[in-house]
Write a structure and sequence with these properties.
The chain is of the alpha/beta class. The chain has 2 domains: 202 residues, Alpha-Beta Complex (Quinone Oxidoreductase, Chain A, domain 1); 133 residues, Rossmann fold (3-Layer(aba) Sandwich). It is 26% helix and 24% strand. It is built from 12 helices and 15 strands. Strands 3, 4, 5, 6, 7, 14 and 15 form a 7-stranded mixed sheet that branches. It has a 6-stranded parallel sheet with strand order 10-9-8-11-12-13, with helices on both faces. Strands 1-2 form a two-stranded antiparallel ribbon. Helix 5 packs across helix 6. It is globular and about 55 Å long. It starts with a strand and ends in a 5-residue tail after the last strand.
């Protein structure tokens, strides 16, 4: 089968690999119908994800059809259309029982797919702990509608949930890339008083302006002053940092009011400094880390009800055979790209 593979730093290649097989009773084999490229994959190619294993098939945003299940699987069966969670988790350890599935203590726990074990930019993928990591797609929901459930939409939903947003809040989202836009949709479910997006790209600001006209927009250069003018207590009540740039971490806490919550969603390529003397007295609460992707069933219900729609984010489509071209487009942020759908004609 075709599989997009991490060779070494700076190099991915589309290789012919053996089709995966069941290795454990809790495995399932999923035939991929639609996948996507994530910024985290770009970080892998840059060599900025030390745990990524050379030779691994990359990709962790995908939907497909269950092809085969191990003897221990009860929640899905052959023929089911499913979303695939970015994380694999056993459901039984201390962290899983408390909903912290990103920290599952199993050797394949957390973000493994497309990083430490073979992922889904391929024709087939083996999913460990499939009862936990697969969610059936409702019949009225398309593959396109469900494509981002297991990763960036789960991230936006998780970030919104842990930020404890209220109707009185002014919320600042830094970054209107794919994860920032998913975060925006989830923040909108909470109906805060004001939502402000800070985004450098004029193309992406125009995308937000066109699709979500009620959202206020600013740029990094003007963000601090804009937030102060449009908030009541000297800054945003909630800040969600989704950009992951060299300046966005500092911007996040500088734009927050005293006693605000700053939720860090971004994956950085470089270490960030927490300048405690500079922020002394602001009494900020920071919430950070990788997504705990345990809300996928709820997200699918919201999609089914028409409360969330990420299909406008799919701006380009490529077959798996042209994935090198798709990567160049996505990494270069050219041609107005937001997200690229990777189709598997052989498996659809």
């Amino acid at each position: 089968m075709l599989a997009y593979t991490y060779i070494n730093k700076g190099q991915f290649s589309l290789l012919d690999k053996p089709r995966p097989v069941i290795q454990d009773p809790r495995d399932a084999i999923v035939r991929i119908t639609l996948g996507s490229i994530c910024t985290s994959d770009i970080h892998i190619r840059h060599g900025k994800v030390p745990r990524a294993v050379p030779g691994v098939t990359i990709g962790h945003e995908m939907v497909g059809i269950v092809e085969e299940t191990g003897s221990g699987i009860t929640s899905v069966k052959r023929g089911d259309r499913v979303t695939v969670n970015v994380e694999t988790f056993c459901g039984e350890c201390f962290f899983c029982r408390h909903g912290y599935v990103n920290n599952c203590t199993d050797k394949d726990g957390g973000w493994a797919l497309g990083c430490r074990i073979d992922g889904g930019l391929a024709e087939y993928v083996r999913v460990p702990f499939a009862d936990q990591g697969l969610n059936k797609i409702p019949d009225t929901v398309t593959d396109e509608q469900a494509l981002f459930v297991g990763d960036i939409l789960a991230t936006g939903f998780w970030a919104t949930r842990i930020s404890d947003i209220t109707a009185d809040d002014t919320v600042l989202i830094i970054g209107a890339g794919p994860t920032g836009l998913c975060t925006l949709l989830c923040v909108m479910l909470k109906s805060p008083k004001h939502i402000i997006i800070c985004e450098r790209s004029e193309e992406r600001r125009e995308f937000v302006r066109r699709h979500y006209p009620e959202v206020m927009l600013t740029t990094p250069e003007n963000c601090h002053d804009f937030v102060i003018r449009h908030s009541e207590h000297g800054g945003a009540d909630i800040v969600l940092e989704v950009a992951g740039s060299n300046n966005s971490f500092r911007m996040a806490w500088e734009c927050a009011r005293p006693n605000a919550t700053v939720t860090i969603v971004a994956l950085y390529e470089e270490a960030q400094t927490l300048p405690l003397p500079d922020m002394y007295g602001k009494n900020l609460t920071f919430k950070t880390g990788g997504v705990d992707g345990c809300d996928c069933a709820e997200i699918l219900r919201l999609i089914e009800k028409g409360k969330i729609d990420t299909t406008p984010f799919i701006t380009h489509r490529f077959p798996l055979e042209r994935i090198d071209e798709a990567y160049r487009l996505f990494e270069g942020k050219s041609d107005g790209v937001i997200k690229v759908a990777i189709e598997n004609p052989k498996t659809m």
